[in-house]
Amino acid sequence: MMACSSSATSTNQGNGIVQVRTDHVSYSPGAVVVLTITNKGDTNVGYGLCPSALERQVGSSWLSVGSYEPGDCDLVLRFLIPGGSGQTSTLLPLELPVGNYRLRFDSLAEQGRPVLLPLESRVSNVFAIR
Questions:
Q1: Could you give the domains of the chain?
Q2: Residue 37: which H helix or E strand, with range?
Q3: Residue 113 in this model has a pLDDT that exceeds 70
Q4: Which of 30, 56, 64, 101 has the smallest C-beta neighbourhood within 10 Å, fewest atoms?
Q5: In the chain, how long is the greatest CA-to-CA distance?
Q6: Which of 94, 83, 111 is nearest to 19 (CA)?
Q7: Distances from the Cα of 53 to the Cα of 3, 21, 69, 93, 107, angstroms
Q8: DSSP string, 41-63
Q9: Over pLDDT 90: what percentage of the chain?
Q10: Could you tell me how far CA 25 lies from the centroid of its own chain?
Q11: Residue 13 CA neighbour count, 13 Å, CB half
């Protein structure tokens, strides 16, 4: 696990071409998070079922506090048509301090383009660990 940070603000999280939403706004450590990924754009979007990282909000920055190994889930790339949605789930670590978190996907890209979507299209809404 490597720590890295991003300075994106929480106001634009999950509001891009692709929307990644959790099934609840708060969780306990060790809970299962169900994510709905919706393509709000006008072209097909490729996505993997696993998030790449769990990030914790520290001030106005985001710090990676956990990463998901490729062997942890199915590596098959799936595609969402414009307006389409898909679901996946992930298990939160058992040891997480109280705070605000989000899940980041590094596998979201427009079909046929090797460039990742902007960050706001690759992160979930903010959720709390209580």
A1: 5-124 (2.60.40)
A2: strand 32-39
A3: yes
A4: 30
A5: 40
A6: 83
A7: 10, 15, 9, 12, 11
A8: SSS-EEE-SS-SEEEEEETTEEE
A9: 58
A10: 14
A11: 24
